Records
---
Amino acid sequence: MADLQWREKVKKITNVAESGQHVPEQAKSFGMGCFYIFFVLIILLFLFLLIGFIQKGHYIAASIVGLLCLGGIIIIRRIINADQLPK
C-alpha cells in the first residue's frame, strides 16, 4: 500500500518538473542565480589558472585554458541575453 502512495508522489513530482508550470518564479530566479554564481566561480578559477600558466611559461596550457575561459564567458553572456530559453 505504501509503495503505491510513493509511486503516485513520484509521478506528481515528475509531472510538475516536466511541465514547470507550478514552480514559483522566486525558485526559478534563485536557481538561475546559483547557476550564474557557480559559472562565474569556474570562470575565475580558469582566469587564475591562465595567469599561473603564463607566469610559469606554459603557453600551450595557457592558450587552452584561455580558450575555455573565453568559451565560458561567451556561453554565460548568451544565456543572460537570451529572451527565452528554448523548451
---
Amino acid sequence: MNWKKLTEIDYSDDEIKVLRITTKHGRVIYETGVADSEGEMWHHSDSMAFPSRYLGSVKQHKEVYFVPVEEILF
C-alpha cells in the first residue's frame, strides 16, 4: 500500500482514511477514521452498533500515516 504521512493538509478533508497510528510507546494501531481541523482523530463507522470514538490528537502520537479508503475498497 502507498502509505502517506498525515499532515495538516489532510485534516478536515472529509475523506475517510485507513490510519496507521504508531503511539509514543511503539504500539501500532490501524483504524478507519478522519482528522478534524484541529488534528483530533476520530474513528469512523456507519454502524450504530459501533459509534465514532476519539483516537487522540495527531500530535500525541509518534507518527500517523494513512491510505484513503477508496484506494483499498473495490
---
Amino acid sequence: MAVAATVALLPPVRNKISITYRVLTDCAAILVTAPVIIFNLWYFYIITFQY
C-alpha cells in the first residue's frame, strides 16, 4: 500500500524537481553569461572610443 502511494506521488514531485532544476540552471546560465556580455560590450566600447 505504501509503495503504491509513493509511486502515485512520484510524477508530480519529479515534475516539480525538474521545473526547479530548469529554473536554477537558467539562473546559473544568466549569471555566467551576463558578466561576459557586459565585459565584451565594455571592451568594445573602450576600443571604439579610445582613439
---
Amino acid sequence: MTKETMTHDATPDVPPEPLQHDGVIQAEALFQGRRVLIIEFRGEHYQLRQTRSGKLILTK
C-alpha cells in the first residue's frame, strides 16, 4: 500500500453528530469550539451564545 493510498483510506476527524437518537443535541457538536452561533428560524436570525460561566443565551 502506498502512502497516497493510506492517506486516501484514512478516516478524517469527523465531529460528533449533533442530533442523537433520543432527540438530545450536544452543544459541543453544534458550537465546535465557537462561542456564538447564528440560527435561522422562519426567516429570522437568532444568536445562541455561550457565556463564560457555561450558560447559553438565545437572543433575536
